[in-house]
Specification:
This protein is α/β, with parallel strands linked by helices and about 220 residues long. The chain has 8 helices and 10 strands. The strands form 2 sheets. Strands 1-2-3-4-5-6-7-8 form an 8-stranded parallel beta barrel.
């Protein structure tokens, strides 16, 4: 099955339910302006009860290198998702296998910029009104399709029950990142929506057994 990351986790109940549904990774947002922000202390408690094979991802926006490294070690994170305006040079402060770089794609210049990152994967999302993600808006799928020819691709941006099948068929990304599309309110997952979206993914997914695994324990 195509790997799925459920992002914006703020409580243990949602984390364990998403894991039980088949999530390969969970995302914790360490960006205070986000309505899905979680304190490192709380993320650490949740991470401590998760299955060992589940990949724990910390989401940061324009944070300092030292603070990212501190939170990563403190919470026992496996990967880092940089969701702000971080440069390729900034990303090189970390091992490439640990980094997911989120980008918004509007044109060829954005594509070329995305290609310049030496990272484990590029996550294509949609920004709006100064927000760095979690907007519920659909990303540019056509440009996302071109990205996967050069970089491992995670598709994000407004994925929900209504469009997830189409996303799998049209984009066929290595992984999916789902957040607002399985929520009852920001930061609170709707367990019925989670169950249904995983059922849809299993029903229509065509990922081969030897598909690229972005969310895997490394190092």
């Amino acid at each position: 099955m195509t790997q799925v990351k459920i992002c914006g986790i703020t409580n243990k109940e949602d984390a364990l339910y998403a894991a039980g549904c088949g999530a390969a990774a969970l995302g914790f947002i360490f960006y205070p302006p986000s309505p899905r922000y979680i304190k490192p202390e709380d993320a650490r408690k949740i991470a401590s009860v998760l299955p060992d094979e589940l990949v724990k991802v910390g989401v940061f926006v324009n944070e300092k290198v030292a603070e990212i490294k501190r939170v990563m070690e403190y919470c026992g994170l496996d990967m880092i998702q940089l969701h702000g305006d971080e440069s390729p040079e900034f990303c090189r402060e970390f091992p490439a296998f640990q980094i997911i770089k989120a980008v918004e794609l509007k044109n060829d210049n954005d594509l070329n910029h995305a290609y310049s990152y030496e990272v484990a994967a590029i996550l294509v999302d949609s920004r709006h009104a100064g927000l760095y993600g979690g907007t519920g808006r659909k990303a540019n799928w056509k440009l996302a399709c071109r990205t996967k020819n050069k970089k491992p691709l995670i598709l994000s941006g407004g994925l929900n029950e209504e469009n997830i099948a189409e996303a799998l068929q049209m984009v066929a990304s290595a992984a999916l990142d789902i957040n607002s599309g399985v929520e009852s309110e920001p930061g609170k997952k709707d367990h019925a929506k989670l169950a249904r979206i995983f059922d849809i993914i299993r029903a229509v997914d065509t990922a081969p057994d030897n598909a690229l695994l972005i969310f895997t324990k490394r190092g």
